[in-house]
Design brief:
Two copies of one chain form a homodimer. Chain A is an alpha/beta fold. Chain A folds into two domains: 157 residues, Alpha/beta knot; 63 residues, Helicase, Ruva Protein, domain 3 (Orthogonal Bundle). Chain A has ten helices and seven strands. Chain A has a seven-stranded parallel beta sheet. In chain A, helix 1 packs parallel to helix 2, helix 1 packs parallel to helix 7 and helix 5 crosses helix 7. Chains A and B meet through helix 1, strand 5, helix 5, helix 7 and helix 9 of A and helix 1, helix 7, helix 9 and helix 10 of B.
């Protein structure tokens, strides 16, 4: 397959038919890693029917109970979104997404997230993304079918792979921290901010989301994450001294 | 609608569900003219269900008995084809197709032909085409769903119309903090790290350089910088309490 380090992650899909159609869309574009986070129904005859020959993708699909299970080991996470939210991460077009994937070190795992049929990704899911993928569409009727959205993004990946142009964007080969490691940093950061009374857990406002957006943009590598964690530990120790 | 002179022509579609899915794919990309040449079944509840809100496209669809009826008044005809036939017309990619459409005089009618679910376009139909549209795909599994094929071509039309400079990785328009503001933040950060004894001014190693590199990558905006400064102030206040 073309992109062994790329996985398609469907969050909470309602219709098994759509899961099958996604598998088919993936296979036509040489993608084969499908993760399903809490699918309503799976496996199901409708999924197999709509897969139309991409049964191997369905058979190998990973069913996960949490998003963490599906993306914990990933270093780059991009989520498809029809709406551009006010407080969100940088937005890229599907072709820019493909260039990012192409420019990434092949040893890094990449997750492309797609949300529920009717409501898309939750804010919590979006907070795990480094970029949002926005598919240009009719502003008055932007409701792409789930498999159509996957099809377009997968098609751009296919195109970029075939493309001879090597204008590689974003090739700094940092050893990025994994999504799970970064998540632990955010927990540590939040605890520290509560401790120094910058963050009121009763009224957190958007502080953590803003900080997530900032650090997700930077994509800390492992050493940087260690420096940040060390900073937080020093701050907590200092606060503890006085108690 | 975006391309009033462009019509999607489905030749002999078997499944009414696919017709509905095509209508939906069209509408998401601002196309509204659908022609059906000898559909097996139409109208049908499956078509309406899969149209998912694009019923207006279905209601206005022209059902034709012959291809001639559907494309007779057209000046440019392009047909989608998975196989590249030996004796065929020039083959273009979906984005090249979009460029051809965009370059065409708006008074000229343009038809984009899509064939049967299982066998595509006949040679006779292909002979009516000026170009064949070939969607890049997995050579071992090129069976795109009919609506997916329409979706991809319509998406390229949409892209070309928006003239989205596809090289533009458009990060949302953050009002970046000025270099001087960021510099003040670094000073503040350094003082705080010294205070919590994370940073030893006598042996600073590379801590500040690492942190600069990280934050410079993220390019904080003004609000984010305020949040970071607020955090540092809270940490300093906490440290002061004990002195």
């Amino acid at each position: 397959m073309a992109f062994p380090n790329v996985r398609i992650v469907l969050c909470n899909p309602s219709h098994p038919g759509n899961i099958g159609a996604v598998a088919r869309a993936m296979k036509t574009m040489q993608l084969d890693k499908l993760y399903l986070v809490e699918p309503k129904v799976f496996p199901h005859a409708d999924a197999t029917a709509r897969a139309a020959g991409a049964d191997d993708i369905l058979a190998a699909a990973q069913v996960c109970n949490t998003l963490d299970e599906a993306i914990g080991d990933c270093h780059l996470v991009m989520g498809a979104s029809a709406r551009i939210r006010s407080l969100s991460c940088p937005v890229v077009s599907p072709d820019a997404c493909a260039r990012l994937v192409k420019g990434e070190n092949k040893t890094q795992q990449i997750a492309l997230l797609f949300g529920r049929e009717h409501s898309g990704l939750t804010n919590k899911e979006i907070d795990r993304c480094h970029h949002l993928i926005h598919i240009p569409s009719n502003e008055e009727f932007s409701s792409l079918n789930l498999a159509s959205a996957v099809q377009i993004v997968a098609y751009e990946l296919m195109k970029s792979r075939q493309g001879t142009d090597s204008d590689n964007l974003h090739t700094d080969l940092l050893e990025c921290a994994s999504s799970a490691d970064v998540e632990r940093f955010y927990e540590h950061l939040e605890q520290t901010l509560i401790k120094v009374q910058f963050l009121d857990p009763a009224a957190p406002r958007h502080v953590m989301r803003r900080l997530r957006r900032l650090f997700n943009r930077a994509r800390p590598d492992i050493i940087e994450l260690n420096v940040l964690r060390g900073m937080l530990t020093a701050m907590q120790n200092k606060s503890n001294e006085q108690q």
